[in-house]
Write a structure and sequence with these properties.
The chain contains 2 helices and 9 strands. The chain is mainly β. The protein has a single domain (about 5-160), classed as Roll (Pnp Oxidase, Chain A). The strands form 2 sheets. Strands 2-1-7-8-9-6-3 form a 7-stranded antiparallel β-sheet. A hairpin with a 2-residue loop joins β7 and β8.
Length: about 180
């Protein structure tokens, strides 16, 4: 088995909206890490006792997914997210959760054979967790032209398809 694996990334697609069918494709990304999806909590908690006995427990907070988007301040997507932000305070009964889809494309080279790998995330039941911060800088910092949106989701699914050996991986969903 050769250990010569090459992965080339590109053409990631991030969509966000108030339903899985009605999503907006995000395109006005800022610089650097313009999107970051993280899972801050363990899915299982455990402790080890005497004689290496183990007690394990499912942690429901393990299904929490956090999406951070760095966008150009004042872009169409910034306005779209801003319009979603105050909706809970306006009328809690009409509040719509946020959904997102992320599709990461990888080109893989395994032993000289190129393969397209797809990694997809479906994020459900999200809320904007805090208002975007503001910065003004007289030294010309480019960060003043960036807005950072943070969205937390209660549920996620991850799917990896077309792995070089032909397998399809569909893990159990969080939640």
């Amino acid at each position: 088995m050769s250990l010569n694996y090459v992965r080339v990334t590109g053409n990631d697609i991030i969509q966000i909206g108030t339903s899985l069918e009605a999503v907006k494709t995000i395109t006005a990304f800022a610089d650097g890490d313009y999107a970051r999806l993280s899972f801050p909590n363990d899915i299982m908690n455990f402790t080890i006792g005497k004689n290496r006995n183990m007690i394990a427990a499912y942690n429901a907070m393990g299904s929490l997914a956090e999406l951070e988007l760095r966008l150009l301040r004042g872009c169409e997507e910034d306005k779209f997210l801003n319009d979603l932000f105050p909706s809970f305070d306006d009328d809690a009964l009409k509040f719509s959760f946020i959904f997102a889809k992320i599709d990461k494309k990888l080109t893989a080279d395994k032993n000289g054979s190129a393969v397209e790998i797809s990694e997809k995330y479906t994020l459900k039941n999200g809320v904007i967790s805090k208002a975007p911060e503001f910065i003004s800088n007289v030294s010309g910092s480019t960060d003043q032209g960036v807005v950072v949106w943070q969205v937390r989701f209660a549920e996620f699914e991850r799917e990896v398809t077309n792995a070089p050996d032909g397998t399809v991986i569909n893990p159990v969903t969080g939640g």
